Amino acid sequence: MEVTVASSTILIALGILAGIINTLAGGGSNLTLPALMVMGMPADIANASNRVGIFLQSLTGALGFKKHNRLESDEILPMMIPTLLGGLAGALAASFSPEWILKPMLLGAMVTMSLIMVLRPAMIIPPEGTIPLKVADSPKSWIGLAIAGFYGGFVQAGVGFILLAAVCGVLRYDLVRGNALKLVCTLAFTLVALVVFIARDQVAWIPALILSIGFIIGAHLSVKFAIKAKPETLKKLLLVMTICGCFAAMFF
Predict the structure, then answer these.
(1) Measured between alpha carbons, how far is 48 from 161 in angstroms, rounded to an integer?
(2) Contact of 246 with 30, CB cutoff 8 Å
(3) Do residues 146 and 197 lie in contact, with contact meaning Cβ atoms separated by under 8 Å?
(4) pTM
(5) Per-residue DSSP letter, 128
(6) Which stretches are transmembrane (predicted)?
(7) Alpha-carbon gap, residue 223 to 63, rounded angstroms
(8) Per-residue model confidence (pLDDT) at position 109
(9) Cβ–Cβ < 8 Å for 187, 58
């Protein structure tokens, strides 16, 4: 892939938009992955290179939520075990799988989440005032986090919705704290995936780092928005992003 001023500008702009979408909901990689492939990257290289920005965006967002006391630190370690195990399995599967497997998984996840958001929103968005559960008290959350980790390690795009289903839908966290924990989980399995992809020399570093600039800016801006936004605004925004993500998965 040839990196020019024009392509760098496009990557940064898409990275900002994707960073905002990923931090507040999920599905931002539905923009960046097709862009990397249109610019000449094979699907496996694009999938691996995209993870550099995802890692830095997740780190930026998690630190931002922690700064504003919206990150439940006590639950991080219990969430890491299933997430990391799933992420390692998914990354190994992605590294050795043919390209045609990636898109059906992505589309299936996005369509499913869109239908749930429209038909059964309470499964993802708990009522205000709901007391969150502990991972240790909810075997279903362990399974959900392991599945999210596998999917995130495998393809990444749209994994935010699956994580929100586990963190908000099963453990009943509000969207702000749920997004904070979602970013920590994403950070964990993305790090594992990156180790696998780097070991197999599948990361195109220059475009990956350029894209990362946008991801970091987007994450920083969206944390500030999430802290100040009303819960109802976040709910509507999540629904819109879910539906848009579904269309992006179908047509790109």
Answers:
(1) 20
(2) no
(3) no
(4) 0.79
(5) T
(6) 76-94, 106-125, 145-168, 180-199, 205-227, 234-251
(7) 9
(8) 61
(9) yes
- What are the residues whose beta carbons fall under 8 Å from the beta carbon of 245, sequence distance 6 or more? 21, 25, 26, 27, 30, 110, 113, 114, 158, 161
Structure tokens that stand for 70 in this block: 């919206």
C-alpha angle with apex 76: 75 to 77, nearest 5 degrees? 95
CB atoms within 10 A of CB 73: 11
pLDDT tens per residue across span 59-104: 999 999 899 888 888 888 888 888 889 888 888 887 776 766 666 6
Q: What is the DSSP letter of 131?
A: P
**Helix, strand, coil % in the chain, rounded to nearest 5:** 80, 0, 20
End-to-end CA gap in the chain: 19
User: Contact 157/18 with Cβ under 8 angstroms?
Assistant: no
Question: Are 222 and 25 in contact, with CB atoms under 8 Å apart?
Answer: no
The answer for 228, left when phi > 0, alpha when psi is -120 to 50, beta otherwise, is: alpha
Instruction: Assess contact for 101 and 163: CB atoms under 8 A.
Output: no
Rounded Cα distance between 248 and 106, Å, is 10
Which residue, 86, 47, 67, 66, is CA-closest to 185? 86
Alpha carbon 214 to its chain centroid, in Å, reads 15
Tokens of 74: 């006590």
DSSP 111-124: HHHHHHHHH-GGGT
